[in-house]
Amino acid sequence: MEDVVLKMPTTDVALIMQFASRMGWTIESRRNPVARFIEACSGSKAALTDEEIQAEVNAVS
Fold it and tell me: What is the C-alpha separation between 26 and 48, in angstroms, rounded?
């Protein structure tokens, strides 16, 4: 698999989502990995500092 970043007008997203579904592709917005990271960290025993969270966000952006 290869990751590709595609920027497009919001009005075209539904069409691309439909096409991707037919092709068997997965699409996720850039927000999703960050949200998943924050969610995963909130359940851990060792709390992360704001700086550590920012460093991780910058790493996936």
Answer: 30
Compute the Cα dihedral for 12, 14, 19, 25 and give only its sign.
positive
Q: What is the pLDDT of residues 18-45, one digit of tens each?
A: 999 999 998 877 666 677 777 777 666 6
Q: Is the pTM of this model over 0.85?
A: no
The verdict on residue 54 lying in a domain is yes
C-beta pairs of 41-49 under 8 Å, 24+ apart in sequence: none
Q: Is residue 1 part of a domain?
A: no
Tally of domains within the chain = 1
Residue 36 located in a structural domain: yes
